[in-house]
TrEMBL record:
Top-rank taxon, per record: Eukaryota
InterPro entries to which the protein is assigned, alphabetical: CenT-Element_Derived, DDE_SF_endonuclease_dom
Protein name listed in UniProt: DDE superfamily endonuclease
Keywords: Endonuclease, Hydrolase, Nuclease
Amino acid sequence: MARKRYNIGQKLKLLDEFETLRQQGYSRRKAAASLGVQPIQIRKWTHNRPVMQQCPRKKKSICKGRLSALKHLEQPLIGWCLDQRAEGIPVTYALLQIRAGQLDEEFRQRPEKSQYHMIRALCRANEIVLRCVTHQSQRRPQDVADEALEFLVVERPIVGAPGVNLDVVLNMDQTPVFLSMQPKRTLNLRGETTVNGRKTSNSTNRVTASLAVSASGLKLKPMLIFKGTPNGHIARRELPALPQRNELVMVCQEAAWQDDNNMAKWIDLCLVPYLQEYGQGAAAILYLDAFTAHFSASTKAKLETQGVQLRAIPPGCTGLVQPIDVGVGKPFKDRVRQKWIEWMMRQDAEAPVMTNASRADCAAWVAESWRNLPQSILKNSWRKSGFSWFPADVVDSEDADAEIADVDFADAEDAEVADVPDVAVADAAE
Protein backbone atom coordinates (compact mmCIF):
# COMPACT_ATOMS: atom_id res chain seq x y z
CA MET A 1 0.00 0.00 0.00
CA ALA A 2 1.42 3.39 -1.04
CA ARG A 3 2.37 5.69 1.81
CA LYS A 4 0.22 8.77 2.18
CA ARG A 5 0.01 11.48 4.81
CA TYR A 6 -3.43 12.87 5.61
CA ASN A 7 -4.26 16.23 7.13
CA ILE A 8 -6.50 16.43 10.18
CA GLY A 9 -9.63 17.19 8.17
CA GLN A 10 -9.10 14.10 6.03
CA LYS A 11 -8.44 11.95 9.12
CA LEU A 12 -11.70 13.04 10.75
CA LYS A 13 -13.59 12.36 7.52
CA LEU A 14 -12.06 8.88 7.28
CA LEU A 15 -13.07 8.17 10.88
CA ASP A 16 -16.69 9.10 10.06
CA GLU A 17 -16.62 6.83 7.00
CA PHE A 18 -15.05 4.04 9.09
CA GLU A 19 -17.87 4.26 11.64
CA THR A 20 -20.45 4.13 8.85
CA LEU A 21 -18.88 0.97 7.44
CA ARG A 22 -18.80 -0.61 10.90
CA GLN A 23 -22.52 0.06 11.28
CA GLN A 24 -23.06 -1.72 7.97
CA GLY A 25 -21.44 -4.87 9.38
CA TYR A 26 -17.85 -4.52 8.17
CA SER A 27 -15.09 -5.83 10.40
CA ARG A 28 -12.43 -3.38 11.57
CA ARG A 29 -9.83 -4.81 9.20
CA LYS A 30 -12.16 -4.90 6.21
CA ALA A 31 -13.47 -1.38 6.87
CA ALA A 32 -9.93 0.00 7.17
CA ALA A 33 -8.82 -1.80 4.01
CA SER A 34 -11.73 -0.40 2.02
CA LEU A 35 -10.66 3.10 3.06
CA GLY A 36 -7.03 2.45 2.11
CA VAL A 37 -5.62 2.75 5.65
CA GLN A 38 -4.22 0.38 8.28
CA PRO A 39 -6.26 -0.64 11.36
CA ILE A 40 -3.49 0.70 13.62
CA GLN A 41 -3.96 4.14 12.04
CA ILE A 42 -7.67 4.03 12.78
CA ARG A 43 -6.97 3.16 16.43
CA LYS A 44 -4.47 5.99 16.75
CA TRP A 45 -6.75 8.56 15.13
CA THR A 46 -9.68 7.45 17.28
CA HIS A 47 -7.56 7.93 20.41
CA ASN A 48 -6.47 11.41 19.25
CA ARG A 49 -9.87 12.45 17.91
CA PRO A 50 -10.75 14.90 20.76
CA VAL A 51 -7.45 16.71 20.22
CA MET A 52 -7.78 16.71 16.43
CA GLN A 53 -11.23 18.30 16.63
CA GLN A 54 -9.64 21.32 18.29
CA CYS A 55 -6.93 21.70 15.61
CA PRO A 56 -7.08 23.44 12.20
CA ARG A 57 -8.27 21.00 9.55
CA LYS A 58 -5.36 21.69 7.19
CA LYS A 59 -2.67 20.71 9.69
CA LYS A 60 -1.14 17.27 9.29
CA SER A 61 -0.14 16.73 12.89
CA ILE A 62 -1.49 17.50 16.33
CA CYS A 63 2.03 18.23 17.55
CA LYS A 64 2.55 21.91 18.24
CA GLY A 65 6.24 21.77 17.34
CA ARG A 66 9.00 23.40 19.27
CA LEU A 67 8.23 26.34 21.52
CA SER A 68 8.47 29.78 19.95
CA ALA A 69 11.46 31.91 20.83
CA LEU A 70 8.94 34.73 21.30
CA LYS A 71 6.77 32.86 23.77
CA HIS A 72 7.35 35.55 26.39
CA LEU A 73 6.10 38.19 23.90
CA GLU A 74 3.20 36.19 22.51
CA GLN A 75 0.44 37.74 24.61
CA PRO A 76 1.43 41.43 24.18
CA LEU A 77 2.26 41.04 20.46
CA ILE A 78 -0.83 39.08 19.46
CA GLY A 79 -3.02 41.25 21.67
CA TRP A 80 -1.64 44.41 20.07
CA CYS A 81 -2.16 42.96 16.59
CA LEU A 82 -5.79 42.03 17.28
CA ASP A 83 -6.49 45.43 18.87
CA GLN A 84 -5.15 47.17 15.75
CA ARG A 85 -7.24 44.97 13.48
CA ALA A 86 -10.34 45.62 15.57
CA GLU A 87 -9.87 49.29 14.69
CA GLY A 88 -9.41 48.43 11.00
CA ILE A 89 -5.71 49.39 10.98
CA PRO A 90 -3.60 47.20 8.63
CA VAL A 91 -0.84 45.19 10.33
CA THR A 92 2.13 43.57 8.57
CA TYR A 93 5.00 41.37 9.66
CA ALA A 94 7.25 44.45 9.52
CA LEU A 95 5.03 46.33 11.99
CA LEU A 96 5.07 43.36 14.36
CA GLN A 97 8.88 43.24 14.08
CA ILE A 98 9.05 46.89 15.12
CA ARG A 99 6.63 46.30 17.98
CA ALA A 100 8.58 43.27 19.20
CA GLY A 101 11.79 45.29 19.07
CA GLN A 102 10.19 47.96 21.24
CA LEU A 103 9.26 45.33 23.82
CA ASP A 104 12.46 43.27 23.82
CA GLU A 105 16.04 44.56 23.50
CA GLU A 106 17.40 41.09 22.75
CA PHE A 107 15.01 40.63 19.83
CA ARG A 108 16.08 44.00 18.42
CA GLN A 109 19.69 42.83 18.27
CA ARG A 110 18.87 39.81 16.10
CA PRO A 111 19.42 39.87 12.31
CA GLU A 112 16.44 41.22 10.38
CA LYS A 113 15.88 37.93 8.54
CA SER A 114 15.78 36.06 11.86
CA GLN A 115 13.28 38.59 13.22
CA TYR A 116 11.02 38.06 10.23
CA HIS A 117 10.97 34.26 10.54
CA MET A 118 10.30 34.43 14.30
CA ILE A 119 7.39 36.82 13.80
CA ARG A 120 5.98 34.74 10.94
CA ALA A 121 6.16 31.54 12.99
CA LEU A 122 4.45 33.26 15.93
CA CYS A 123 1.62 34.47 13.68
CA ARG A 124 1.11 31.08 12.07
CA ALA A 125 0.98 29.40 15.48
CA ASN A 126 -1.84 31.78 16.44
CA GLU A 127 -3.78 31.32 13.16
CA ILE A 128 -2.90 34.81 11.95
CA VAL A 129 -2.20 34.96 8.21
CA LEU A 130 -1.93 37.61 5.50
CA ARG A 131 -5.30 38.37 3.91
CA CYS A 132 -6.44 40.68 1.13
CA VAL A 133 -8.58 43.60 2.27
CA THR A 134 -12.13 42.99 1.04
CA HIS A 135 -13.88 46.03 2.52
CA GLN A 136 -12.44 49.51 2.95
CA SER A 137 -13.86 52.32 5.02
CA GLN A 138 -12.54 55.53 6.52
CA ARG A 139 -14.32 54.78 9.77
CA ARG A 140 -13.86 52.13 12.45
CA PRO A 141 -15.28 48.72 11.45
CA GLN A 142 -17.57 48.58 14.48
CA ASP A 143 -19.02 52.02 13.69
CA VAL A 144 -19.74 50.92 10.13
CA ALA A 145 -21.27 47.64 11.34
CA ASP A 146 -23.48 49.49 13.84
CA GLU A 147 -24.74 51.84 11.13
CA ALA A 148 -25.36 48.88 8.80
CA LEU A 149 -27.43 47.16 11.49
CA GLU A 150 -29.44 50.34 12.07
CA PHE A 151 -30.09 50.43 8.32
CA LEU A 152 -31.35 46.83 8.38
CA VAL A 153 -33.64 47.52 11.36
CA VAL A 154 -35.55 49.96 9.15
CA GLU A 155 -35.26 48.26 5.75
CA ARG A 156 -35.94 44.60 6.49
CA PRO A 157 -39.53 45.20 7.67
CA ILE A 158 -40.15 47.34 4.58
CA VAL A 159 -38.92 44.61 2.24
CA GLY A 160 -40.93 42.00 4.13
CA ALA A 161 -44.14 43.98 4.50
CA PRO A 162 -47.32 42.22 3.28
CA GLY A 163 -47.97 42.79 -0.41
CA VAL A 164 -44.40 43.71 -1.33
CA ASN A 165 -43.46 42.16 -4.69
CA LEU A 166 -39.86 40.95 -4.39
CA ASP A 167 -39.53 41.13 -8.18
CA VAL A 168 -39.47 44.93 -7.87
CA VAL A 169 -37.22 45.20 -4.79
CA LEU A 170 -34.04 46.13 -6.62
CA ASN A 171 -30.40 47.02 -6.07
CA MET A 172 -28.17 48.62 -8.71
CA ASP A 173 -24.50 49.52 -8.64
CA GLN A 174 -21.55 50.08 -10.95
CA THR A 175 -18.46 47.91 -11.25
CA PRO A 176 -15.40 48.36 -13.50
CA VAL A 177 -14.53 45.82 -16.21
CA PHE A 178 -10.98 46.19 -17.49
CA LEU A 179 -10.03 45.46 -21.07
CA SER A 180 -6.74 44.05 -19.78
CA MET A 181 -6.65 41.84 -16.67
CA GLN A 182 -3.05 40.65 -16.33
CA PRO A 183 -2.48 38.94 -12.96
CA LYS A 184 -0.02 40.48 -10.50
CA ARG A 185 1.50 37.06 -9.76
CA THR A 186 3.06 34.55 -12.15
CA LEU A 187 4.75 31.16 -12.12
CA ASN A 188 8.52 31.51 -12.36
CA LEU A 189 11.70 29.63 -11.53
CA ARG A 190 12.73 29.89 -7.91
CA GLY A 191 15.66 32.17 -7.09
CA GLU A 192 15.44 34.69 -9.94
CA THR A 193 15.84 38.24 -8.64
CA THR A 194 13.79 39.87 -11.41
CA VAL A 195 10.46 38.50 -12.59
CA ASN A 196 9.41 40.09 -15.89
CA GLY A 197 5.84 40.54 -17.01
CA ARG A 198 4.30 41.96 -20.16
CA LYS A 199 1.24 44.16 -20.15
CA THR A 200 -0.95 45.50 -22.93
CA SER A 201 -0.37 48.87 -24.53
CA ASN A 202 -3.37 50.42 -22.72
CA SER A 203 -3.63 48.31 -19.60
CA THR A 204 -5.71 50.87 -17.63
CA ASN A 205 -8.59 51.07 -20.12
CA ARG A 206 -11.83 50.09 -18.49
CA VAL A 207 -15.57 49.93 -19.02
CA THR A 208 -18.19 50.62 -16.35
CA ALA A 209 -20.93 48.02 -15.99
CA SER A 210 -24.18 49.02 -14.27
CA LEU A 211 -25.69 45.86 -12.81
CA ALA A 212 -29.05 45.46 -11.09
CA VAL A 213 -30.77 42.49 -9.43
CA SER A 214 -34.06 41.89 -7.65
CA ALA A 215 -34.64 40.30 -4.26
CA SER A 216 -36.37 37.40 -6.05
CA GLY A 217 -33.25 36.63 -8.07
CA LEU A 218 -34.13 38.31 -11.37
CA LYS A 219 -31.60 40.24 -13.46
CA LEU A 220 -32.08 43.55 -15.20
CA LYS A 221 -30.43 44.27 -18.54
CA PRO A 222 -26.86 45.49 -17.86
CA MET A 223 -25.59 48.84 -19.07
CA LEU A 224 -22.03 49.17 -20.37
CA ILE A 225 -20.45 52.63 -20.40
CA PHE A 226 -17.51 52.87 -22.81
CA LYS A 227 -15.04 55.72 -23.04
CA GLY A 228 -16.02 58.10 -25.83
CA THR A 229 -18.19 61.04 -26.83
CA PRO A 230 -21.87 60.41 -25.96
CA ASN A 231 -22.97 61.23 -29.52
CA GLY A 232 -19.75 60.32 -31.32
CA HIS A 233 -18.93 57.67 -33.90
CA ILE A 234 -18.57 54.87 -31.33
CA ALA A 235 -21.97 55.53 -29.74
CA ARG A 236 -23.86 56.11 -32.99
CA ARG A 237 -22.32 53.52 -35.31
CA GLU A 238 -20.07 50.96 -33.62
CA LEU A 239 -22.08 50.00 -30.53
CA PRO A 240 -25.48 49.58 -32.28
CA ALA A 241 -23.82 47.16 -34.72
CA LEU A 242 -22.54 44.76 -32.02
CA PRO A 243 -24.28 41.35 -31.74
CA GLN A 244 -25.00 41.97 -28.04
CA ARG A 245 -27.10 45.10 -28.68
CA ASN A 246 -30.28 43.28 -27.58
CA GLU A 247 -28.75 41.91 -24.38
CA LEU A 248 -26.94 45.05 -23.26
CA VAL A 249 -27.50 48.77 -23.16
CA MET A 250 -24.27 50.33 -24.45
CA VAL A 251 -23.49 54.03 -24.18
CA CYS A 252 -20.44 56.32 -24.12
CA GLN A 253 -19.11 58.88 -21.67
CA GLU A 254 -15.86 60.85 -21.77
CA ALA A 255 -14.45 59.06 -18.70
CA ALA A 256 -16.45 55.81 -19.07
CA TRP A 257 -18.30 56.60 -15.87
CA GLN A 258 -21.85 56.92 -14.61
CA ASP A 259 -23.26 60.43 -14.67
CA ASP A 260 -26.71 62.04 -14.59
CA ASN A 261 -27.29 61.50 -18.32
CA ASN A 262 -26.38 57.84 -18.13
CA MET A 263 -28.53 57.37 -15.04
CA ALA A 264 -31.46 58.72 -17.05
CA LYS A 265 -30.63 56.28 -19.88
CA TRP A 266 -30.41 53.39 -17.39
CA ILE A 267 -33.85 54.27 -16.01
CA ASP A 268 -35.41 54.55 -19.48
CA LEU A 269 -33.71 51.58 -21.16
CA CYS A 270 -33.14 49.11 -18.28
CA LEU A 271 -35.44 49.89 -15.36
CA VAL A 272 -38.67 50.95 -17.10
CA PRO A 273 -38.85 47.90 -19.48
CA TYR A 274 -38.17 45.61 -16.51
CA LEU A 275 -40.96 47.22 -14.43
CA GLN A 276 -43.37 46.95 -17.34
CA GLU A 277 -42.67 43.21 -17.51
CA TYR A 278 -42.50 42.31 -13.81
CA GLY A 279 -43.98 45.24 -11.89
CA GLN A 280 -47.66 44.35 -12.32
CA GLY A 281 -48.63 47.67 -10.80
CA ALA A 282 -46.69 47.10 -7.55
CA ALA A 283 -44.63 49.92 -6.05
CA ALA A 284 -40.94 49.37 -6.77
CA ILE A 285 -38.13 49.89 -4.25
CA LEU A 286 -34.64 50.73 -5.52
CA TYR A 287 -31.59 50.60 -3.22
CA LEU A 288 -28.65 52.73 -4.32
CA ASP A 289 -25.43 53.77 -2.62
CA ALA A 290 -24.54 57.39 -1.90
CA PHE A 291 -22.87 58.05 -5.28
CA THR A 292 -23.67 61.60 -6.45
CA ALA A 293 -25.35 60.63 -9.73
CA HIS A 294 -27.69 58.24 -7.91
CA PHE A 295 -29.31 61.01 -5.89
CA SER A 296 -29.15 63.97 -8.22
CA ALA A 297 -32.31 66.04 -8.64
CA SER A 298 -32.88 64.74 -12.18
CA THR A 299 -32.51 61.09 -11.08
CA LYS A 300 -34.90 61.53 -8.15
CA ALA A 301 -37.47 63.24 -10.35
CA LYS A 302 -37.28 60.56 -13.03
CA LEU A 303 -37.66 57.73 -10.49
CA GLU A 304 -40.55 59.51 -8.80
CA THR A 305 -42.29 59.78 -12.18
CA GLN A 306 -42.03 55.99 -12.53
CA GLY A 307 -43.36 55.43 -9.00
CA VAL A 308 -40.05 54.03 -7.75
CA GLN A 309 -39.20 54.51 -4.07
CA LEU A 310 -35.51 55.43 -3.76
CA ARG A 311 -33.73 54.11 -0.65
CA ALA A 312 -30.18 55.15 0.29
CA ILE A 313 -27.53 52.73 1.54
CA PRO A 314 -25.36 54.51 4.15
CA PRO A 315 -21.85 55.54 3.05
CA GLY A 316 -19.19 53.01 4.03
CA CYS A 317 -21.74 50.20 4.46
CA THR A 318 -22.01 49.02 0.87
CA GLY A 319 -19.58 46.15 1.44
CA LEU A 320 -21.87 44.88 4.20
CA VAL A 321 -25.47 45.46 3.11
CA GLN A 322 -25.46 46.11 -0.65
CA PRO A 323 -26.31 42.85 -2.46
CA ILE A 324 -24.34 43.73 -5.62
CA ASP A 325 -21.18 44.29 -3.55
CA VAL A 326 -21.68 41.39 -1.15
CA GLY A 327 -22.56 38.53 -3.48
CA VAL A 328 -22.79 39.51 -7.16
CA GLY A 329 -19.69 41.54 -8.08
CA LYS A 330 -17.05 38.88 -7.47
CA PRO A 331 -18.73 35.89 -9.21
CA PHE A 332 -19.58 38.17 -12.15
CA LYS A 333 -16.00 39.45 -12.45
CA ASP A 334 -14.61 35.94 -12.05
CA ARG A 335 -16.60 34.86 -15.09
CA VAL A 336 -15.49 37.91 -17.08
CA ARG A 337 -11.85 37.24 -16.15
CA GLN A 338 -12.20 33.63 -17.33
CA LYS A 339 -13.43 34.92 -20.68
CA TRP A 340 -10.42 37.23 -20.85
CA ILE A 341 -8.07 34.31 -20.09
CA GLU A 342 -9.64 32.28 -22.89
CA TRP A 343 -9.23 35.27 -25.22
CA MET A 344 -5.57 35.65 -24.21
CA MET A 345 -4.91 31.98 -24.98
CA ARG A 346 -5.86 32.69 -28.60
CA GLN A 347 -3.51 35.68 -28.99
CA ASP A 348 -0.13 35.64 -30.69
CA ALA A 349 2.56 35.44 -27.98
CA GLU A 350 5.18 36.49 -30.55
CA ALA A 351 3.54 39.87 -31.20
CA PRO A 352 5.95 42.74 -30.33
CA VAL A 353 3.21 44.63 -28.43
CA MET A 354 0.21 43.08 -26.73
CA THR A 355 -3.03 44.97 -27.40
CA ASN A 356 -6.22 45.29 -25.38
CA ALA A 357 -9.37 43.43 -26.18
CA SER A 358 -11.88 45.29 -28.34
CA ARG A 359 -15.19 46.77 -27.27
CA ALA A 360 -16.90 43.89 -29.08
CA ASP A 361 -14.90 41.38 -27.04
CA CYS A 362 -15.78 43.13 -23.78
CA ALA A 363 -19.48 43.27 -24.67
CA ALA A 364 -19.45 39.54 -25.45
CA TRP A 365 -17.72 38.72 -22.14
CA VAL A 366 -20.19 40.77 -20.09
CA ALA A 367 -23.28 39.48 -21.90
CA GLU A 368 -22.32 35.83 -21.54
CA SER A 369 -21.10 36.19 -17.92
CA TRP A 370 -24.31 37.97 -16.88
CA ARG A 371 -26.47 35.46 -18.73
CA ASN A 372 -24.76 32.50 -17.04
CA LEU A 373 -24.85 33.92 -13.51
CA PRO A 374 -27.10 31.49 -11.54
CA GLN A 375 -30.23 32.78 -9.87
CA SER A 376 -29.13 31.17 -6.60
CA ILE A 377 -26.15 33.55 -6.42
CA LEU A 378 -28.46 36.55 -6.79
CA LYS A 379 -30.80 35.36 -4.04
CA ASN A 380 -27.93 34.55 -1.72
CA SER A 381 -26.50 38.03 -2.22
CA TRP A 382 -29.63 39.46 -0.56
CA ARG A 383 -29.48 36.92 2.26
CA LYS A 384 -25.81 37.49 2.96
CA SER A 385 -26.24 41.24 2.96
CA GLY A 386 -28.75 40.87 5.79
CA PHE A 387 -32.07 41.47 4.03
CA SER A 388 -34.87 39.22 5.24
CA TRP A 389 -38.31 39.57 6.72
CA PHE A 390 -40.00 38.79 9.99
CA PRO A 391 -42.53 36.04 10.81
CA ALA A 392 -46.00 37.54 10.93
CA ASP A 393 -46.70 36.35 14.49
CA VAL A 394 -43.95 38.53 16.01
CA VAL A 395 -44.63 42.25 16.22
CA ASP A 396 -42.40 43.39 19.08
CA SER A 397 -39.86 45.83 17.63
CA GLU A 398 -37.41 45.05 20.46
CA ASP A 399 -37.42 41.40 19.38
CA ALA A 400 -36.83 42.54 15.82
CA ASP A 401 -33.84 44.61 16.88
CA ALA A 402 -32.39 41.69 18.84
CA GLU A 403 -32.74 39.33 15.88
CA ILE A 404 -31.15 41.80 13.48
CA ALA A 405 -28.26 42.32 15.87
CA ASP A 406 -27.40 38.64 15.37
CA VAL A 407 -26.25 39.37 11.82
CA ASP A 408 -22.44 39.14 11.88
CA PHE A 409 -20.60 41.59 9.64
CA ALA A 410 -17.12 40.43 10.71
CA ASP A 411 -16.96 38.30 7.58
CA ALA A 412 -19.64 39.16 5.05
CA GLU A 413 -19.04 35.95 3.07
CA ASP A 414 -19.82 33.81 6.13
CA ALA A 415 -22.64 35.96 7.56
CA GLU A 416 -25.78 34.00 8.38
CA VAL A 417 -29.17 35.62 7.91
CA ALA A 418 -31.42 35.41 10.95
CA ASP A 419 -35.21 35.17 10.69
CA VAL A 420 -36.56 38.43 11.98
CA PRO A 421 -40.08 39.47 13.01
CA ASP A 422 -42.55 41.13 10.67
CA VAL A 423 -43.02 44.75 11.63
CA ALA A 424 -45.36 47.11 9.83
CA VAL A 425 -43.81 49.71 7.58
CA ALA A 426 -45.30 52.49 9.66
CA ASP A 427 -43.75 51.06 12.82
CA ALA A 428 -40.39 50.78 11.11
CA ALA A 429 -40.56 54.42 10.08
CA GLU A 430 -41.23 55.39 13.70
